[in-house]
Amino acid sequence: MSDDKELKGGHAPAVKAGGMRITQHKDPHNKSSTTSDEPTNQALKVSTSPPKTTAIAGAPIRGNADYPPEAVQSFHEKPVPSVEKSHHNKPNMIQQPRK
C-alpha cells in the first residue's frame, strides 16, 4: 500500500466537496482481451417470423384506417370561448376556532 489509497469497503473513499460527498465512478482496472477496436465479422441474425398482429377488444388494429384524418381534426378543433372565465385571486380562508 505504498502508492494505493486507503480502501474503505473495497473501494476508494468518496471525495468531500462543498460539504457533500461525491463518488467517483471509474472503469475496472482489468480489461477483457476480447474487446478490441476491430469490428467483428459476425453477421447479425434476423428473425424471419411473421409480424405479430395485435388486437384491441378482439378487433385487429389497422393503423390510420381506424382513425381517419377528418375525425381526428374535428376532435382537436374545439370552439374558442367568447367570454373568458374570471379568476378569483382571493384565497379561500375558512375561519376555524383555536383549541
UniProtKB/TrEMBL annotation:
Q: Which GO terms describe its molecular function?
A: death domain binding
Region annotated Disordered, chain positions:
1-99
**A biological process (GO) annotation for this entry?**
apoptotic signaling pathway
Q: Residue spans with biased composition (Polar residues)?
A: 31-52
Matching entries from PANTHER family are given as: DEATH-ASSOCIATED PROTEIN 1, GEO09647P1
The entry's protein name is Death-associated protein 1
UniProt source species? Diaphorina citri
